[in-house]
Amino acid sequence: MSWGQLDDELLSSQKRVIDVNKFVETNIKQVSELLQAVDNDNLVGREVTKGPRTVLQRLPRHMRRRAMSYNVKRLPRRRRSYALQFIKASRHRKKPPSRFRRRRPRNLLQAYARRNRKNIWLETHIWHAKRFFMIERWGYKIPFQSFQRAFRPTYRDSVHHCVIQDMSFLRCIQIVMGDRAPVLSALHAFFSPLACLTPASKFAEDGRFEVSAFFYKPNEYPKGFIGPIRFMWSANRDGTHCLVIWTHPSISDQVLEHLIVHLNASKLDTVEGGKGLTADSDTGGFNDISYCKNEYLSNSLNCTVS
């Protein structure tokens, strides 16, 4: 028997008729799902979907717009009330305020206060940010390098005018005392007359000059060097004396700790009993460099010189 005769015999032995009723009964679930997806009157023409349909999917394709997903006014009027429920429940990013509103002075101050929480801004930050590369150092945002590629303009201004450097990132430590003698004897352990001037020197004690010095650990000169500082004496109206010490932020905590321990002082804002120590990091300072003239310096500081 050939293969062709075998195929004809097998086909003739099987029924060529399907009982529709029995077929539908056995596959009723699949047929219902097919009718729901294809032959559904609620669906848009030529549209097949299995999941829940959105508001846009209920519209014909020629009426759909991309803006309908966030602007309900682009939908037909009879669909807007239904679409509002889904738009309110969605997590779309709200439209930001206009640039004019964001640039209002009050909003700018709030934005600046929020941005300088991590790193403190100098008083001249806005001016420097437009002209200098800004870096983050020691908890401050300080100017690092000018955008100018040439140094001749700076040199010309320093010779003929005035150049001011913002040093307000330096931290100020104030030592308030009644009698200067015991404090001067205690401060002698931090300085060396061989290396620099001390607070007890005649050049510094009258309070007319700000003096540069080297600060050491108590009685550890010359090995216990901490860093350079600047100090200046000032007299208060109540008869007390004040020694103002300017320190770099990288060594200010170490200097303050040594002063509190060695002077047996208390870190207070108001000092009682004649001797105490206060720390202030909000006091700004300017260091003038060059052969500066009083008129240029006074104009930059908005003050008058008598």
Automatic annotation (TrEMBL):
<dbReference type="GO" id="GO:0005655">
    <property type="term" value="C:nucleolar ribonuclease P complex"/>
</dbReference>
<protein>
    <submittedName>
        <fullName>Ribonucleases P/MRP protein subunit POP1</fullName>
    </submittedName>
</protein>
<dbReference type="GO" id="GO:0000172">
    <property type="term" value="C:ribonuclease MRP complex"/>
</dbReference>
<dbReference type="Pfam" id="PF06978">
    <property type="entry name" value="POP1_N"/>
</dbReference>
<feature type="domain" description="Pop1 N-terminal">
    <location>
        <begin position="110"/>
        <end position="175"/>
    </location>
</feature>
<dbReference type="InterPro" id="IPR009723">
    <property type="entry name" value="Pop1_N"/>
</dbReference>
<dbReference type="InterPro" id="IPR039182">
    <property type="entry name" value="Pop1"/>
</dbReference>
<feature type="domain" description="Pop1 N-terminal">
    <location>
        <begin position="53"/>
        <end position="97"/>
    </location>
</feature>
<dbReference type="GO" id="GO:0001682">
    <property type="term" value="P:tRNA 5'-leader removal"/>
</dbReference>
